[in-house]
Design a protein that fits this description.
The complex is a heterodimer. Chain A is 59% helix and 19% strand. Chain A is of the alpha+beta class. Chain A folds into 2 domains: 176 residues, no CATH class; 166 residues, no CATH class. In chain A, strands 2-3-8-5-7-6 form a 6-stranded mixed beta barrel, surrounded by 4 helices. Chain A starts with a helix and ends with a helix. Chain B is elongated and about 110 Å long. Chain B folds into 2 domains: 171 residues, no CATH class; 162 residues, no CATH class. By secondary structure, chain B is an alpha+beta fold. Classes of the chains: A alpha+beta, B alpha+beta.
Chain lengths: 362, 416
């Protein structure tokens, strides 16, 4: 009987029920989308921030260097939490006797670490080097072959292209680490690390590196870490407040819609009361109906909200926002709560009214 | 009669009208606040992005190569310099208000206790004058991540900052003195930057100039400017553009055009964007702007739907009233006119209130998150009103149409 009343009521008053359902659905959609985005966007933005390059630098103590074993140890501590790129430096001389800094590195990793480098063409074979735009004017103004001398050993190199960064790199020559080592005999002295993840994860990696490498100077690149923390924090607050506004509006509109819905049906309740239903039964009946509506609305809204979040992720970050099942319980509970408040409050107001008055249309 | 009907409807059905008005007001408030945030977020974030420091670097046009590994500078003395006297002219360029700060640099190598140390001269918080405007600039503004344990030296003092790494290696602390080239200087603080400065001494520019014997010389100038993300147009060569396009290029705050303008005012200089900062901040900025734009669209859509749903319910409740009016002989036109007028009044009232509330909200939010208010342009008011009216009509239209079609008998008997 109770079930039948529930379903019949919804079917007979299709239009109002659908309006109420729509309002709940919109609220659930908005909350789901904002919850998913709030969690996911921070991760996505962090990825964007990693394009600023290294956020941790490991430097050997004065005059020291990292042996291949030591570098492998660093790489192992970083593992999947980031990208470690070794750099070795030497000052060589050009044929005209000018001093120029030559850097040996893993060029494939350096390219991943520093996506902002504007490179005309990366070295592809042995004997090739990348020259900074300022260095190029002096060393190889017409491109092609050039010679560098380090401690009496002369090396023939072919310029593959130029690199432009607007900073120190513009005055340097970059070549592969293996060739650099066989030429100069020097080991890398600096390892630049782009550590992924939240600031807590970066801090813990930093602490782990400091623990594992007592002979080295491990420090965060404060320019990068502080800038990131600042922007990310402000974006998060903006996002959070936007979410609060949107969810709040949607919830209040559910309230307005459902209050209207209940007042609209005061005749039904009056009749129920007149034929002997207690206040408690009517409340249970309304609560059941509202709860059902809330659940359906929340589920539909969850699907729609996940869709919207995915669309925003794809449109803005070119990567989908993963559906968050853990957003479902709060959305469901929130919807049911708001719906119950929106229906039971006006019902309390109606309770004091005599059925006869309502039925007479007063 | 018409006016009286509308007036009485508002007077007698206060609860219902209040609910509708609240729904519209809230929708308008959230829309106003969200649009204001979406419009202003780019500006706010680009100011916040200045926490990454300088995005433009000016060097002498005929400069020799930098020879620097980590904190050790091996560049031979000599070469070209910029003139310190030209620096205030930066505040005279077209985009002067976008320049948030600049810091000059001059390096020299000194012997301290037998070891070679690199001494860097810069401004800390130097007061400069251009024309009749005064401004303060220097490392404290340009490199906001520099932390000093102790005190910042004054720009005309004989005090210096010692890099963190140097300080631990040589047991230095604030208040001690160091002997450089036969003269003693006070250590006012220990500097921590996470960069090469940790292994250097940073001193007032004038002090380094006199030590290096190069009065008025500056070898590099770091400029921090609020810029617009570069696009294909920004990368064009200004000399190859038509005069109209060139003006548009010149008057857009691209990193390239600000660099171009810096080169114009500083003789024999070469200005270039520091790509690590300039490129990536453009990237971050457009991502955040895009995100807020999409969220604002979603918010507008949500509040539109929510307000429409609330309107539809409120209208639907009134079918008895409509039945009565019809029974008394009201035509379709008269009925629609009454309800449309009511909706319109509600929408305008809610729209104006919502606009005011939303502006206040945006202002407070800007104040609390970014430390500067988000100002809502009054131009937004007509837009918000239009949206409010459209949404209210959309919500009421279906209900009004149905109500008008009712057979009054059914409505009055309460069967609808």
């Amino acid at each position: 009987m109770f079930l039948r009343m529930l379903t019949r009521a919804a079917i007979l008053r299709k239009r109002t029920a659908i309006a109420a359902l729509c309002a709940i659905m919109v609220a659930a959609t908005a909350s789901t989308a904002m919850l998913s985005l709030f969690v996911d966007v921070q991760g996505k933005l962090r990825k964007e921030f990693r394009r600023f390059g290294a956020n941790i630098v490991v430097e050997a103590k004065k005059g020291g260097s990292f042996s291949p074993d030591k570098f492998r140890q660093i790489e192992a501590s970083v593992a999947t939490h980031g990208l470690a790129v070794p750099f070795a430096y030497a000052v060589a001389n050009t044929t005209k006797g000018e001093a120029v800094v030559v850097a040996g590195t893993d060029l494939t990793l350096a390219r991943k670490l520093n996506p902002w480098w504007e490179v005309s063409s990366w070295p592809e074979g042995p004997g090739q080097a990348l020259i900074g735009v300022r260095a190029a004017k002096i060393i190889a103004p017409n491109g092609g072959r050039f010679q560098l001398t380090y401690q009496g050993r002369t090396l023939d190199l072919l310029s593959s292209g130029t690199v432009r960064t607007g900073a120190g790199e513009d005055s340097r020559v970059y070549m592969s680490l293996a060739e650099f080592q066989s030429w100069t005999g020097l080991q890398p002295s600096v390892v630049e690390i782009a550590a992924y993840g939240s600031s807590a994860e970066v801090t813990s990696l930093l602490a782990a590196l400091q623990r594992n490498l007592p002979g080295a100077d491990v420090h965060p690149v404060r320019q990068v870490t502080e800038g990131e923390a600042n922007i990310l924090g402000k974006t998060r607050s903006t996002l959070l407040w936007s979410a609060v506004f949107i969810v709040f509006t949607a919830a209040l509109c559910v309230l307005a819609t459902l209050t209207g819905w209940i007042f609209d049906r005061r005749r039904d309740f009056a009749i129920m009361k007149a034929i002997g239903a207690s206040d408690w039964i009517i409340a249970a009946f309304v609560a059941g109906e509202a709860g059902l509506l809330a659940c359906i609305g929340a589920l539909l809204g969850f699907v729609a909200g996940t869709g919207i979040a995915a669309w925003i992720g794809r449109a803005n970050f070119h990567a989908p926002v993963t559906p968050r099942l853990d957003a479902l319980p709060p959305v469901l509970i929130g919807c049911v709560l708001v719906t119950l408040i929106a229906t039971l409050l006006p019902l309390r107001l109606l309770r004091h009214i005599q059925p006869a008055m309502i039925l007479r249309g007063e | 009669m018409f006016v009286r009907l509308v007036y009485e409807s508002f007077r007698r059905q206060t609860r219902r009208k209040l609910l509708m008005a609240i729904a519209v007001t809230l929708g308008a408030a959230v829309s106003t606040a969200m649009i204001a945030i979406a419009v202003d977020i780019g500006d706010k974030i680009s100011h916040e992005l200045r926490s990454y420091g300088a995005n433009l670097l000016v060097t002498p046009a005929e400069d020799s190569l930098d020879v620097q590994i980590g904190s050790v500078n091996l560049k031979p003395a000599g070469g070209a310099y910029l003139s310190e006297a030209d620096l205030p002219k930066i505040k005279g360029i077209f985009w002067r208000n976008n320049i948030t700060g600049f810091a000059p640099e001059l390096q020299t190598n000194v012997k301290v206790g037998g070891a070679d140390w690199t001494l860097v001269g810069t401004y800390f918080a130097k007061k400069l004058k251009f024309g009749d405007q005064e401004f303060t600039t220097g490392a404290r503004k340009t490199f906001p991540w520099w932390k000093v344990n102790g005190a910042w030296p004054a720009d005309d003092s004989n005090q210096v900052l010692v890099g963190e790494k140097l300080a631990t290696e040589n047991a230095m602390s604030p208040g001690k003195e160091i002997l450089v080239s036969g003269r003693t200087y006070g250590v006012s603080g220990i500097l921590s930057t996470g960069g090469p400065e940790d292994g250097q001494i940073v001193a007032p520019l004038s002090l380094v100039q006199s030590l290096a014997g190069k009065p008025g010389a500056v070898s590099k100038l770091f400029v921090s400017a609020v810029t617009k993300p570069e696009d294909a147009f920004a990368r064009r060569n200004p000399d190859s553009l038509t005069p109209a396009d060139r003006d548009r290029w010149y008057c857009s705050p691209y990193p390239q055009s600000i660099a171009y303008q810096l080169q114009e005012v500083l003789p024999h200089s070469h200005a270039e964007q520091i790509r690590q900062v300039a490129q990536n901040e453009g990237n971050v900025l457009s991502r955040i702007e895009g995100l807020m734009l999409l969220i604002t669209l979603a918010a507008l859509f949500t509040s539109g739907l929510a307000v429409s749903a609330a309107m539809a319910t409120a209208m639907f409740e009134r079918r008895q009233e409509i039945g009565l009016m019809k029974a008394l002989g009201a035509g379709h036109f008269a009925l629609s006119a009454i309800f449309i007028t009511e909706s319109f009044l509600l929408a305008c009232l809610g729209g104006v209130l919502g606009f005011a509330a939303g502006s206040l909200l945006a202002r407070k939010l800007g104040q609390s998150i970014f430390g500067s208010a988000i100002v809502v342009e009054p131009v937004l008011l007509p837009l918000i009103l239009a949206i409010a009216v459209a949404v209210t009509f959309a919500g009421s239209a279906a209900a009004i149409r149905r109500a008008v079609k009712y057979d009054p008998v059914h409505a009055l008997r309460g069967e609808a």
